[in-house]
Specification:
InterPro entries: BUG, Bug_dom1, TAT_signal. It holds the Pfam family TctC. By secondary structure, the chain is an alpha/beta fold. The protein contains 12 helices and 11 strands. It folds into 2 domains: 38-133 and 260-328, D-Maltodextrin-Binding Protein, domain 2 (3-Layer(aba) Sandwich), CATH 3.40.190; 136-234, Periplasmic binding protein-like II (D-Maltodextrin-Binding Protein, domain 2, 3-Layer(aba) Sandwich). Helix 2 (51-66) crosses helix 10 and helix 4 (104-113) runs parallel beside helix 12 (307-328).
């Protein structure tokens, strides 16, 4: 009897020790299993019709089917280089119902440019997935005498201070990439910031500026019409979309490697199970042939992959651009 009583007391003690831990895990598991319990927001930092917006809406449409008919809404919040939308999501509840559809700027370089940024890209977000990339090119007006990158460099060096370039805004990717190019090639080119891509492209077409770094999709029409000329691709390898365009590395400036990518993140602290479900669902959407075809029509190529891939991309981009921003003392407008 004494032995049986001792065993009962031991089992009771073990149950008492294990039960609180079990109970502490149950709410989190139940929470993840019940997700989504309300509409999911995809917060986009650009206006409707932009390439980021187009990709987000295709993903939102596909997610509804992958998540059992869940409501997925696209919410556009442009401004401040994407940091307004990013801050909105960073301060949202980490419950998988608010996601940020970002790009290089707000997810990698903004913290080096904005001294009072209300979030930290590498700390405030849980990476979910890298979604798409776009060819990043240097273009000039078709009337420009340079037909190659080497000719462009030689022309600028022959008349220092006379050349200028457009950007889609101060501290934007088009601004930072040109400054990286200038530093690598030893060029003096005057910066003329425009308010967005369309205005910068029109300035180049009109001949008001000499060059522009931009996503190829933004200038595909004028290039096809013979009004603009592509000189180089700012990536490590040639793009299947532009097989005839050589990279900067091929033309003697390997330092200019500035791919453009989009990604989706959640607020830091979002349960890993929800992050995993979102990653699998979005990756499945991006794998659908119809989605790939529509993205390709908009000048975008699918990336996809695990959250760890995006986390590494964000770390690498942040480290690459920090010295560029510091050396140039680039500040927001």
């Amino acid at each position: 009897m004494n032995t049986q009583a001792s065993r009962r007391r031991a089992l009771a003690g073990l149950a008492a020790a294990v039960l609180p831990a079990t109970l502490s895990l149950s709410p989190a598991r139940a929470f993840a299993q019940a997700w989504p319990s309300r509409p999911i927001r995809l917060v986009v930092p650009t206006p409707p019709g932009s390439s980021v917006d187009v990709a987000a809406r295709l993903i939102a449409e596909g997610l509804r089917g992958k998540l059992g008919g869940a409501t997925v809404l696209v919410e556009n919040k442009p401004g401040a280089g994407g940091t307004i939308a990013a801050a909105d999501v960073a301060r949202s509840a980490p419950d998988g119902h608010s996601l940020f559809v970002g790009f290089n700027g707000p997810l990698a370089t903004a913290e080096h440019v904005f001294p009072r940024l209300p979030y930290k890209p590498l700390e405030s977000f849980a990476p979910i997935i890298a979604t798409v990339s776009q060819p990043h090119v240097l273009v000039v007006n078709a009337a420009h005498p340079a037909r190659t990158l080497r000719e462009f460099v030689a022309g600028v060096k022959a008349a220092p201070g006379k050349a200028n370039y457009a950007s889609v805004g101060n501290a934007s990717a088009s601004h930072l990439t040109m400054e990286l190019f200038k530093s690598a090639a030893g060029l003096f080119i005057v910066h003329i910031p425009y308010n967005g891509g369309p205005a910068a492209t029109q300035g180049l077409i009109a001949g008001d500026v000499d060059a522009l770094f931009t996503a190829y999709v933004n200038v595909q029409g004028p290039v096809s019409a013979g009004r603009l000329r592509v000189l180089a691709l700012a990536e490590k390898k040639r793009s299947p979309r532009l097989p005839e365009v050589p990279t900067f590395a091929e033309q003697g400036v390997p330092q200019v490697d500035a791919p453009l990518w989009n990604a989706i993140v959640a607020p830091a602290g979002t349960p890993a199970e929800i992050v995993g479900k979102l990653n699998a669902a979005i990756d499945a959407v991006l794998a659908e042939p119809a989605v790939r075809e529509k993205l390709a029509g908009g000048g975008m190529d699918v990336i996809g992959g695990r959250p760890e891939l995006l986390a590494e991309m964000m770390r690498t981009e942040s480290a690459k651009w920090l010295p560029v921003v510091r050396r140039l003392g680039i500040k927001p407008d």
